[in-house]
């Protein structure tokens, strides 16, 4: 041992410059009682670890089943409400109008089909200023009238013919 100026004892290994962890590990004294407690602790962990794993898995399964039960109950409540709506004659009548296009006697049904899809990129943006067009609509109308009235094509030639569908 080397004595310090303050009269504290420092191990020779620390004075020479070895690492502190090695000195600390060397200074640990293990008794039989300490070894017994460490062994019992290790044995307890080994015995309880599988049981804890099973407990955690079961808790996870319970949480999953609870979530499934809650969603199923919500879906059942929605279906019960929907079934109750079908008991209302006004709702049944509205569904027959919307889905099956039924009308009450004496009513006239108008069906508007909007099968034209417009590309939003090709639409002309509205402006507040007036513009002159280069089209002469009167000449276009007169030309269309003359072509329709003075044409020599037969109606069969005017109607487009579609190819017959092939089976396959």
Question: Which secondary structure elements does this structure contain, and how are they paired or packed?
Answer:
Blueprint: E1 2-3, E2 9-10, H1 12-16, H2 20-27, H3 32-86, H4 89-100, H5 137-150, H6 155-158
Antiparallel strand pairs: 1-2
Structure characterization notes:
The protein has a two-stranded antiparallel ribbon with strand order 1-2. The protein has 6 helices and 2 strands. The chain has a domain at 50-109. A hairpin with a 5-residue loop joins strand 1 and strand 2 (9-10). It is mainly alpha-helical.
Helix tally? 6
What structural class is derived from the secondary structure elements? Answer: mainly alpha
Number of strands: 2
The largest sheet has its strands arranged as 1-2
Strand content: under 5%
Largest sheet: 2 strands, antiparallel
Cα Rg: 46 Å
Helix content: 55-70%
The string of secondary-structure elements, in order, is EEHHHHHH
Summarize this, please?
With 168 residues, this protein is mainly α. The protein contains 6 helices and 2 strands; from the N terminus they run E-E-H-H-H-H-H-H.
